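Pair request: fold both.
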Amino acid sequence: MRRVSSKMSCIVSRQFLQPQPKFQINAFRFYCDQPDLSSRKRPGPLTRYRNLVEQGKLQHDPEQERVAVELDNLFGRLEQYENKMGEYHVKLAKWENERENERRRLLMEEADLKQQSDKETTVSKYRNILETTVSKYRNILEGRWMFRKKPENVERGVGKWVSYLNREKKLDKLVGWRPTPPPAPKGLYLYGSVGSGKTMLMDMFYSATEGIVKHRRRFHFHEAMLEINEHMHRVWKNQVEEKSLQSNISSWIMNLPFDTNVKEWLVAEERYNQDIRMKNILPAVADKFLVDQEMDQRGASILCFDEIQTVDVFAVVALSGIISRLLSTGTVLVATSNRAPDDLNQDGMQKEIYQKLVAKLEQHCEIVLIGNEIDYRRLIAQRSISKAHYFWPLDGIAFKKFEEMWHEVINQSGGKVISSTIPVMFGRSLKVPESCNGVARFNFNYLCGQPVGAADYIAVARNYHTVFISDIPEMSMRIRDKARRFITLIDELYNHHCSLFCSAASSIDDLFKGTEEGTLFDLESFQFETETEGAKLRRNVLAEGNVGSGGTPTGIISMLSGQEEMFAFRRAVSRLIEMQTPLYLEGVCDLHPYFQRQSEELGDDSERTLLSQPTC
């Protein structure tokens, strides 16, 4: 208890600033060095791994060291590749500007010809009227011929599609093809059992690239799916593109010296050009997927993707389109999963599309198995676990200890417990019944017994560094939907490096073993939020079929296999165990987004002071 008390003093002793929502996480553990502000050179993954083994924080494992060597080799090639990618982005931006300028110039030429054609057509109509007095038959013949006559430079009878293609061909000749990105070093696709060290090694690599690679993002599966869905949602609803299009039209077409009908033709051509781009939506989303919104810099060089899954058709199609696009444009991928790419899509969903993704992964990544079967989270916990973060069973004694811990943390925070509301994606919000200075408390049924999902849990994890969850039951078939939500909740609290306190009906190891009602199989799917026709919609991404006009998913069929469920259970248990260890808790103050926002807002001098303090 003394260890926990000192830890909580560390967490709540600082004067916190109110967090601002930001859709990005930094989920590093104890194995990721804290920023060394005095040196630009950061040690590579292999050096980090061996240092932790020497310090006794990790047990040496030949499989993990082999993967660390692979990551270190990749790390060594990144600096030169980053320089080449910087040159490529300059060329790409120049090419895009030149192509857009030439496209508009061609449109102006076509518009000018069209206006001349319209004037000649008008003259022809008046001439036809005059010639009616001479001869009706001659008038009809000449009128038809004059009405159809076009300038030689204007193509006859072409539709928008042919016109668009011809214009693109001219642009290829005038400006050239899109610049080819430099050959990227092969990334790594790491797979293996729960607790084998996949995420740890990937995060070591990601942390080491700070300051070396400018364009870099790290996503967990849930967060990636939500962000992809949000981008697609905006495109479909024309919330961004339509406004941008109208602005462009107003700024350069409406002020042109053309007649109204020619301007309308230009608007139609621009709309068609936009429609063509939007029909191929996944590349458009991929190009925005790794944009640094703050720096307004486009195209990341590295994507670290934790827990790649193919839980549904949407995931298969979206991941195939976006990852294929990123790999084709020079992004280096380091990913983790519980299965090899060939074995990931066991239900055979969209097989042809998925096989193209597998081919891309094999072309651009080394497929590496971490072959050990040891759960190192459990091994670390056996050496140094603190029981004070998980209270069971749900009896009077455990309840009293849980309440005492809650009051201790709140008293140390020096604030007042209030009810608050936090923003969630898609314009939603979530009410938090009890919170105080980055600490929040929930009942299990409040978080997992109502239609909430990953977007809500990400919002909770970002805004609160310490979370209390009470009355967690043993999972059974009767509450399988709650069990699946609870697993997603644990994933997000872990990914954001939250401190977690639980009161539960059973020990961690027995939590997912089921009850007399039977073991847990065929859980309800992972869910996320979307919107249909302005109404809030709970969308099940394991659904086959379309969303009806009433906003209700039709044809819901769960595709999550029993093996995938058991893997999710084991992962949740493993993470719950690690979240109690001192090694994990020591990182909360430095790694949780709540504290990182504070450091950024306080500035470099304050950051140096905070990082020098041995409180965490």
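--- second member of the pair ---
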Amino acid sequence: MPSPSSCCVFGLFFTALFLSSSSSFSPPISISSIDEFRNYTAISEFRILNRRFLAECPDTNPYLEINVSKDSRLSDEEYLTVTVSGVLLPAENDWVAMISPSHSDVSSCPLAEIFYLQTGDLSNLPLLCHYPVKAQFVSNDPDYKSCKKKECKKYENGKCVMTTCAGSLTFHAINIRTDIEFVFFAGGFKTPCILTRSTPVSFASPEKPLYGHLSSIDSTGTSMRLTWVSGDKEPQLVQYEGKSEESEVVTFTQDNMCGTEKTSPAKDFGWHDPGYIHSAVMTGLQPSSTFSYKYGSESVGWSDEIQFRTPPAGGSDELRFVVFGDMGKAPRDNSSEHYIQPGSVSVIEAVTKEVSSGNVDSIFHIGDISYATGFLVEWDYFLHHINPVASQVSYMTAIGNHEMDYPDAESIYNLPDSGGECGVPYWTYFPMPTVDNKKPWYSIEQGSVHFTIISTEHAWAENSEQYEWMKKDMASVDRSKTPWLIFLGHREMYTSTQSFLGPDADFLSAVEPLLLANKVDLVLFGHVHNYERTCAIYNSECKGMPRKDEDGVDTYDNSNYTAPVQAVIGMAGFSLDKFPDNVNNAWSLSRISEYGYVRGHATREELKMEFVESNTGKVGDSFRIIKSQSS
């Protein structure tokens, strides 16, 4: 989620307007500037570009050119040098956008006023018909404004009488199947106009199978699902250990997005064709073992051969896992992009090292997955971002507000947080072992742990379908088989971070009694962008406190169970939420506002958890939960 004091205020305002709107939307107030709302949107000037008039600049400069270092057949990942030349007067607000597909309409596009409200602008301005994938100011080249890269364009009597300037930028491009074009603008993000555009460049293999990621389908550790993306709709294969399985192929369209025409990013200017999502299940594997696979077909090509590790079977003695929330992605160049999560690069790099060490059996990402929020091309960038780890170990997920919530979605929160995605890209890209896509809750056992994974965005009130499922699932846990019960979801129950709304009191009152009744050992949530650990807590009171072991590590003894330990772990990417200077919550034992992830190690006697700061590798907090086998 954006900072708690931001999107919630704006979301309530948006929802009130949405619910009171008609087909001829007329806002109840009129504000001519976005300045009053800038602190409530977490939105940059680049992100609000889509509401600006776009036209050809009144520029008669015949020398302008924009060239790309590679003019055709791009590989699946490229760092392209884009050079603007022939510029007579370099300006601070000159910029270049990467557009895809190249035939996109980048002219002005007036839309309903509610469209502006979603992106934080209440003024009456037209909208750019197609959204740039990314953009950079040419002044990112330090030689541009000073015109150190000069070229003479006109000579008289052997002397140069017309000199122009140039600047070069580096753009990170990945295979998004559609061709790309670079457009040179003047006027900055606020008042853009087109100066010139490049020749379109295409990917060599738009149908290439890419971004394969693994997930568990059950608790046996003997089957693994592989999901990947391709531009080809024909079934492909995953080949492994002398066997092969054919893929099931699905996709989604703009019609599957929420909102009416011209009312949501996903439905309109943020749309990008997702290609085809392939999924196949590898069977007959052994738990806690290493195998290899490749995926694709003879007609579209094959992935590299990749080694992967199966998780331990439920009921076995040991599990090593990583868990975090709210990651997203960030550019690998100097671009501005919609919704950058600045900590995501350091976190995925640190987790990649963990996986490469062989000490990770599985990963759990508990909501706010890509932060695409209606800008669909960003799902491709996110899948590329996690590929080094998700291709090697089971990558399990829970749905968050930025995947699900929208006023006409099947969510209990009528906020625009998903930008109109309403869960569809999430459960298409990340098929979990749920009964139904639209019921994104499930449980799975790995090693000595039973994980109960819920959707905080779907009804959880007493007597709801999910409530009854939670109640039945946790009551059915065989503690002689899996002594540890960990409860995962996105929205938190407790936080010391100050926000406009804070935790949902109804969620706490409905679900917390189930946690106590079923003796849940550990509860992990995201949504708030920091790390915070509690005592053994119930009803906002400490029911048990840890003691220090001989190494000074906080140790909770659940042999005499009192209440669950809870932790917020939403510090994997999104801009961090700071804690207030004076926190008076007796239940808050550890608070860290740094990027990182949580590393877990479960045996039958001990559950050890460590918060690892991604930039340094330092263990910022650690705690243990122990119990005797008879407990």
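Observation on the second member. Confidence is low (pLDDT under 50) at residues 3-43, 107-117, 119-128.
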